[in-house]
Amino acid sequence: MVVKKAQVRHEFQVVGFYLGTDEYAITIAKVREIQSMTEIRKVPKAPKFVEGVINLRGRILPVIDLRKRFDLPPAVDPAQAKILIVEFNKNLVGLVVDNVSEVIRLYSDQVEKTPDIFSLTIDSRYISGVAKLNERLIILLDVENLLSFEEQSALAGIKS
């Protein structure tokens, strides 16, 4: 007789957001706050996906446009855009997204590894998995892998 080991079901929460019609999410532990779109100051010679910097209560934060990071076309309605302030390798960084949906409760058995098809549109290193929630598919981003070491160093230079 073969006895199957019971799989432990872990609960976790993510903050959902949209880029176009696609729904993405980042673990809530990484999200510090959600800001309405504000003036973003351009930074000369910044990488193309860096939108610029913002002043958040006296702190200068670099802002990454996720559409540019993923080589997606510009937003149709930029007035809806939000800035997710996330902790990124012990630093705070703003991520421009089209809109924020909600805090979503997920379970580990709802998440599957990244399908190979995603490598055609978004570099799969940015994705930690895909969650199935009823009829929704939510792409889970791995914040820590959004930037290479060299890109992180360039960002560190921007905010100092």
Briefly, what is this?
The protein is mostly beta strands. Helix content is 9%, strand content 46%.
Estimated structural class: mainly beta
Number of strands: 11
Biggest sheet: strands side by side, in what order? 8-1-2-11-10-9
Tell me the Rg in angstroms. 17 Å
Q: Which ranges are low-confidence, i.e. pLDDT below 50, for 5 or more consecutive residues?
A: none
Instruction: Please tally the helical runs, counting DSSP H or I stretches of 4 or more residues.
Output: 2
CATH topology: OB fold (Dihydrolipoamide Acetyltransferase, E2P)
Order of helices and strands: EEEEEHEEEEEEH
Question: How helical, in percent, are the residues?
Answer: under 10%
Q: What number is the mean pLDDT?
A: 85
The main sheet comes to:
6 strands, mixed
CATH architecture descriptor: Beta Barrel
Tell the overall outline: globular
**CATH homologous superfamily caption:** CheA-289, Domain 4
Q: In CATH, what is the class?
A: Mainly Beta
Beta content comes to over 45%
> How many domains in all?
1
Q: Terminal Cα separation, in Å?
A: 63 Å
